[in-house]
């Protein structure tokens, strides 16, 4: 089973031993960040630093000035890793160690974009903007993200890409100093808090037969018990229908589903047009279409007509793996099972052999390991042992 590990360029740049150390794990591929959101990352083995603070979403290569000239929305450059092209430098070192490099592109997730261009953001039913969540229904946002996908994915020396957040982002967000857990919101309430009411989305709901003012009022009414302390534990599509009413719920699902599907089609087509033949395109995905976030909700049948496959979150229980891998069973395409390997972040490297075998029995044909740069020495030792036995 082909295994690949996630890395940031700053894990490699300035560390002459990094590429060989990753190759010695037994992985064949590295998925290397080329466009990424803000983060604070530990670098436990780097000879020059221990913490890297990526202060905002940025590209880790020099963007093409001709592509972005005169455009209001353009990618931000990074300043926290030395050199003009840290992605290219890291990719070269990894390739020289015998590793196949694929790009890791985060699309609809950028707090700086929303802060500097508020009209790009998802707007909830209360009028609150989510600066971390660009609304993919907005034409300018869509055009920017589609071009970003092509440029960030098809970097020189890169054999494929994995597109993260290639769809709707919403309320859930690992924000700095997060303080939003005081009220219990179930899956259905999270969906309601993620509905966008920007002008394009309001018009879209209307075309689907839902008056946007009535819909926003219905969202607020449905969520009132949660704010009053009663909670909102409903989940699933039936739970969304229970909170909103079936007709309103269906209208939102139709609109958002169509926007996500066409955005995924445009982003992948843009990558393919910029990339050489044989370039692999995978989406980080969830088989529940209304889910939002890094692993975007997709239509199972649709996504496999667009991309070469999916990367699915598989850390956790057997039932959690069955829920994400089961809908893709027997459908072809790459099904990469993504496992956390950082114990301190909820990963389980010491059960990787068993968990990967379980994923393979459900149809997974590749592994992804999150995240080789963040993991401790003992975590990496456990990964290497597991991969040596998996073959």
- Amount of beta strand: 15-25%
Mean pLDDT figure: 96
Strand order of the largest sheet: 1-2-6-9-10-12-13-14
Biggest sheet character: 8 strands, parallel, barrel
Poorly predicted ranges: none
Give the termini separation.
Answer: 7 Å
Q: Encode the helix/strand succession as letters.
A: EHEEEEHHEHEEHEHHHHHEEHEHEHEH
Description:
- The protein is an alpha/beta fold.
- The chain is built from 14 helices and 14 strands.
- It has helices spanning 18-23, 65-68, 86-96, 111-116, 139-153, 187-194, 199-207, 212-227, 236-244, 246-274, 300-306, 318-325, 352-361, 377-390, and strands at residues 2-7, 29-36, 39-42, 51-54, 58-59, 100-106, 121-123, 129-134, 160-164, 280-286, 296-297, 309-313, 334-340, 366-370.
- The strands form 3 sheets. The protein has an 8-stranded parallel beta barrel with strand order 1-2-6-9-10-12-13-14, surrounded by 5 helices.
- Helix 7 crosses helix 10 (246-274).
- The radius of gyration is 21 Å and the shape is globular.
- The N and C termini lie close together (7 Å).
Short characterization:
By secondary structure, the chain is α/β, with parallel strands linked by helices. The protein is built from 14 helices and 14 strands.
